[in-house]
Amino acid sequence: MEPIIARGDCFEVEERVHADERVHAAPDLGLVRETLAPKLRRGGYASVAIGLLDAYVNPAHERALARLLTSEVREIFVAFSSGIFSEFREYERASTTALSAYVQPVVER
């Protein structure tokens, strides 16, 4: 079975929020703007799914990434896990968010 998101279409962002909401490392938004946004524009992506490890307790970084990508890549749909399924359990949040990002551009058309 082919995965919905190919491994080559997954991008990492260094970020860490502890389960008690403390921020250990914020994402480098400048780096995302310089590296990821151009890849998304060139790659012809219709959507992006954002899933950070403990975003269910502190969604600030996911929301910041979503705002940045929406402003930098205007034609792209952005789904973020804390806005789709803000519950404990990384796999469930990530898969639900990925499915939302997969179908939403089609539904909007």
UniProtKB/TrEMBL annotation:
Q: Name one GO cellular component term.
A: cytosol
Q: Where are the transmembrane segments?
A: none
Domain (Hydantoinase/oxoprolinase N-terminal) ranges? 3-72
Q: Which GO terms describe its biological process?
A: glutathione metabolic process
Instruction: Name any one Pfam family assigned in the record.
Output: Hydant_A_N
InterPro entries named among the record's database cross-references: Hydant_A_N, Oxoprolinase-like
Q: In terms of domain of life, where is this protein from?
A: Bacteria
Recorded GO MF terms: 5-oxoprolinase (ATP-hydrolyzing) activity
Name-wise, this protein is Hydantoinase/oxoprolinase N-terminal domain-containing protein
Q: Please name the source species.
A: Pikeienuella piscinae
The organism's taxonomy opens as: Bacteria, Pseudomonadati, Pseudomonadota, Alphaproteobacteria, Rhodobacterales
